[in-house]
Amino acid sequence: MARLTSFWLFRHFGLRLLSLALAFALWMAVAGEETVERGIRVPLELVQFPAGLELPFEAPTLVDVRVRGSSTALSRVGPGDIVAVLDLRSARAGRRVFQLNPEQVRVPFGVEVVQVSPASIVIAFEKSDTKTVPVNASTEGSPSPGFVVGKVSVDPPTVQVTGPESAIRRTSEAVTDTVSVAGARESLSEAVTIGLMDPAIRVKTSGSATVHVEILPGPSERPLKDLPVHLRSFAQGLSAQAVPSTVDVVLRGTREGLSRLEASDAVAYVDLQGLGPGDYPLEVRIDVPSAGVSRIDPPVVQVRITRP
Hints:
- The protein is mainly β.
- The protein folds into three domains: 32-118, RNA Polymerase Alpha Subunit, Chain A, domain 2 (Beta Complex), CATH 2.170.120; 128-217, YbbR-like domain (RNA Polymerase Alpha Subunit, Chain A, domain 2, Beta Complex), CATH 2.170.120; 220-306, RNA Polymerase Alpha Subunit, Chain A, domain 2.
- Helices cover 15% and strands 51% of the residues.
- It is built from five helices and 24 strands.
- Strands 2, 5, 8, 10, 11, 12, 14, 15 and 16 form a nine-stranded mixed β-sheet that branches. Strands 6-4-1-3-7 form a five-stranded mixed β-sheet. Strands 22-20-17-19-23 form a five-stranded mixed β-sheet.
């Protein structure tokens, strides 16, 4: 029996001795390794955020920590291995102060947190609010020559936005990506993203929309030279003369409408209603169907009324 016990005791003795030697060498390496401290900037995570509260201002995202450990342990620390965690479950509306201590920092095995800076953080909270605002779209560029931008509409025309109460109160609109109409000759529609100028506010409903832009034929102009100035509504027994007696006119309208006009369709005149003998500077007016008047040259003529 004693011989059997001795056999099992010394079986694989060499392997056991080698393992012991390796363990001793590892212990000596670790025990003899220098302990160092290092300052690291690490992310700050906000957890247990209470429902119904918002941050009107950006909260800190980084804090500085001093960590201690062996040079080997610290050399293995990578991005995200050390994280400071701030529990907000007790937060409520108003300005709140939270303490940060080493126990709130997650670190890998073999690394110790010595200090956290800042030791406290002030965060302001506001109640969350929601409202509906119009969506405004903008265009850039110019259509092809002879065309103009008409009505610009957005579908949906309004969206719900949510955020801190103070930011919601000062928000009056949502905006979209700018739609280019450069060189356009026909109406167009484009899918765009809806956004807000205030980063504290977000779109509660769909964050996309469709912008419809009308592209219409632009107004054309047609010049008419030497239109005679007619004298209207002067009293019986009087005579009148205009100087100059003709004017140049530029009409504005659609190409089709202007092309159908005859020169005689446009009538230049001055109204002498109620005027007696004398000299008068009078504004020239134009009667013309289906067109507007862009320019009259000269716009005023001198009229002399006399008795024969």
